[in-house]
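Need the bound structure for uridine-5'-diphosphate, inputs here:
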Amino acid sequence: MKPIKVLSVFGTRPEAIKMAPLVLELGKRHEFESLVCVTAQHRQMLDGVLSCFDIKPDYDLDIMQSAQTLSDITSRVLNGLGEVLKSEKPDLVLVHGDTTTTFAGALAAFYERIPVGHVEAGLRTFDRYSPFPEEMNRCMVGRLAAYHFAPTAQNAANLRSERITDNIFITGNTVIDAMRCTIGDGSFKDETLKKLVFDKRRVITLTCHRRENYGEPMESIFRAVVRIASSFDNVDIVYPVHLSPYVRETARKYLSGKANIHLIEPLDAMEMHRLISKSFFVMTDSGGIQEEAPALGKPVLVLRRETERPEAVAAGTVALAGVDEENIFRLASELLTDSASYDKMARAVNPYGDGHACERTADAIAYGFGVRKTPPEDFHP
Ligand code: UD1
Ligand code: UDP
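Answer from helper R.:
Posting the output first, comments after.
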């Protein structure tokens, strides 16, 4: 029987980290012919992940421009991918999550009448401007897709509430599969991380990059960070700064020149996961890190007004700190001074996956294409 030709499309760092184990899984199985097209919406941050997982794309649209707009990304992906789809004619296009690559990739496939499989489907805040533009991207991909690989039961319920009912599979999140490859005992390559004394000082990992935080919210977050750093002298705050020019300029303006705030270059996934696992806690507006840190037993303060990942909030390891300077400072101070509060949050919980999401996703595709008789069993935490 002819293998099912699956084209995986991704372009940014988080998509790559979460699609990498699935690409590896599809590549292992005889029922699939697995191809990869990267848009390179991110260039350096994508290439780092590709080399971490040793993935060599079949197509590279190389679209990134400095300070690109959403329209730039959308139009460049649509044009570039359209050509690839016309020549390859895959049976299925896989996209991941909620970036502009995700939306434009799904739309390009739809224009060629090629079914779309949406990995990490069904996450919602139900606020169209937060996160922006991700919430609308994932809603639109939900409508475009033929197969929905929802990490959790809540994500599947969100889809059903939008009357999307067919071909929903609860798989767990592939990020937990990815962590099986990235977590190891190795030492750090980054010069700053090599010098940190994790057992004597309290290391806080910080990331902040979201578009809806540009402007006053990001400035308010950074003012809180400065207050934390100057109020607690046994603390080191490590911020691998995203390559976005806006983020870098704002971080430099507010956070540079402080002895215990370390602005470093983006880390590769292995080093990042190692940093989280050795940190006291994490402050972040990232999506993926809200899934990874709880799995590593690290409390997370989410630097956003809302989250599409309520499961770890319900489990008590993630707190929604928002973007208000006072509130962030209060919550961080509590974690640093109140060991009972800290211990309540520092528990390893894994509502997002069991490390077998890629197997379930591959099984679900095989089932959808009639190669397998039964659907995979749902993921239960
Ligand atoms: C994008 C996604 C966001 C995701 C984030 C992950 C959209 C609209 N946003 O946001 O959902 O959370 O990626 O990090 O899809 N840059 C480089 N090199 C890189 C990467 C970025 O120089 O390797 C710079 C470029 O100047 C680029 C800018 O960063 O123009 C912003 O990148 P872009 O992908 O547009 O937005 P992100 O904020 O990264
Ligand atoms: N990450 C990384 N290096 C860094 C910062 C983050 O490898 O310097 C990883 C992080 O562990 C997670 C992913 O990148 O797996 C999250 O990406 P990002 O925060 O850029 O995007 P989001 O998840 O918010 O879409």
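Comments: Residues 198 and 273 are 15 Å apart (CA to CA). The longest strand covers residues 4-10.
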